């Protein structure tokens, strides 16, 4: 029997692990779960037929999935799991992590005959609940093919290159989210000050070349409604944009717009709050413009 393990039952990890469990029933596999706050793992086991386990137990699994805030937390659990890892295992890190951490972690794990894949996801909490996430994978293609049947939370899986490239693509994708969110917020704040009805303005923009997921979905559903439902933390988006800036530096590239949005998101995170939904960054733009985007 194959043993799968999932560490990190947060907004993304809990529904992802639930899909693993549903799929595992047909595959002669079992799913162990671990969470820092242990009660969440026990509740997950009750609700989804997974098994709450210790770090030593999850470390001995055939396939280890992690979905933690950053690569730093992955390092923390890796340190504790190291003595218990099983040669031949694969570690699939679904965290939106750092490319340099991936390179180091892959080398450390390879020394114990464990293969590391950086496999961050996009699609949000709704995509996780529906099992339709896009997974962007860096690392050995054959290792990805071996674990592909277990990626039950995925709607699309793309091998993007060597170790670290999955994290790199994720960081750039989310920096682009930051750009459209921020720029659309600025545009709407200006239009609001000019006395334009913002629902009407968005109706035009969404039928025109200025549209994006931010203008079509995020801002109408979360900002105009003033709901700001906390599904993806502003602090996590700021972290991702920061990784894109680090990537720019590491390849000696020039991406001033991405750097700018990373700095703006970091400032918004401090003023608005890291745990707020990422769309609450627009409250900072509202303050800059003494207006409300509604
Ligand atoms: P959450 O904050 O909802 O969950 C974080 C998880 O990490 C929890 O299980 C938490 O445990 C655990 N954790 C936090 N700190 C530690 C630690 N020091 N040691 C061990 N475990 C820890 O985050 P998300 O699920 O939203 O995000 C997870 C990853 O997925 C991030 O990298 C994020 O950028 C990415 N992502 C998020 C998306 C979203 O829409 N939310 C979309 C795509 C990617 P505990 O329960 O004890 O707090």
Automatic annotation (TrEMBL):
Report the Gene3D superfamilies cross-referenced here. N-(1-d-carboxylethyl)-l-norvaline Dehydrogenase, domain 2, NAD(P)-binding Rossmann-like Domain
Q: Which SUPFAM superfamilies match?
A: 6-phosphogluconate dehydrogenase C-terminal domain-like, NAD(P)-binding Rossmann-fold domains
- Give the range the annotation lists for the signal sequence: 1-20
Q: Pfam families recorded for this chain?
A: NAD_binding_11, NAD_binding_2
**Keywords, comma-separated and alphabetical:** NAD, Oxidoreductase, Signal
Which PROSITE patterns does this entry report, sorted A to Z? 3_HYDROXYISOBUT_DH
Q: Which residues form the 3-hydroxyisobutyrate dehydrogenase-like NAD-binding domain?
A: 164-284
The 6-phosphogluconate dehydrogenase NADP-binding domain covers which part of the protein? 4-161
Does Membrane appear among the keywords?
no
Highest taxon in the source lineage: Bacteria
Q: Which family does it belong to?
A: Belongs to the HIBADH-related family.
What is the name of the protein in this document? 3-hydroxyisobutyrate dehydrogenase
Q: Which organism is it from?
A: Deinococcus radiotolerans
């Amino acid at each position: 029997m194959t043993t799968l393990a999932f560490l990190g039952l947060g907004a993304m990890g809990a529904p992802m692990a639930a899909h693993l469990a549903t799929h595992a029933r047909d595959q002669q596999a079992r799913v162990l779960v671990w969470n820092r706050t242990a009660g969440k793992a026990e509740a997950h086991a009750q609700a989804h037929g997974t098994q709450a386990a210790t770090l030593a137990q999850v470390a001995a699994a055939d396939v280890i999935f992690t979905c933690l805030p950053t690569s730093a937390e992955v390092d923390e659990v890796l340190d504790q799991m190291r003595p218990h890892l099983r040669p031949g295992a694969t570690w699939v890190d679904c965290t939106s992590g750092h490319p340099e951490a991936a390179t180091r972690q892959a080398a450390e794990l390879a020394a114990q005959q464990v293969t590391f894949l950086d496999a961050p996801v996009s699609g949000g909490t709704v995509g996780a609940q529906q099992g339709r996430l896009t997974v962007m994978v860096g690392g050995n293609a054959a290792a990805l093919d071996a674990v592909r049947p277990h990626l039950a939370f995925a709607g699309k899986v793309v091998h993007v290159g060597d170790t670290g490239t999955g994290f790199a693509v994720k960081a750039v994708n989310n920096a682009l989210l930051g750009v459209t969110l921020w720029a659309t917020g600025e545009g709407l704040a200006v239009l609001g000050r000019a006395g334009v009805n913002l629902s009407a303005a968005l109706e035009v923009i969404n039928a025109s070349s200025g549209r994006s997921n931010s203008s079509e979905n995020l801002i109408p559903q979360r900002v105009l409604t003033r709901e700001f439902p906390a599904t993806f933390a502003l602090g996590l988006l700021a972290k991702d944009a920061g990784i894109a800036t680090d990537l720019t530096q590491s390849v000696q590239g020039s991406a001033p717009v991405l750097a700018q949005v990373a700095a703006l998101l970091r400032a918004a995170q401090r003023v608005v709050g890291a745990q707020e939904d990422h769309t609450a960054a627009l409250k900072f733009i509202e303050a800059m413009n003494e207006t409300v985007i509604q």
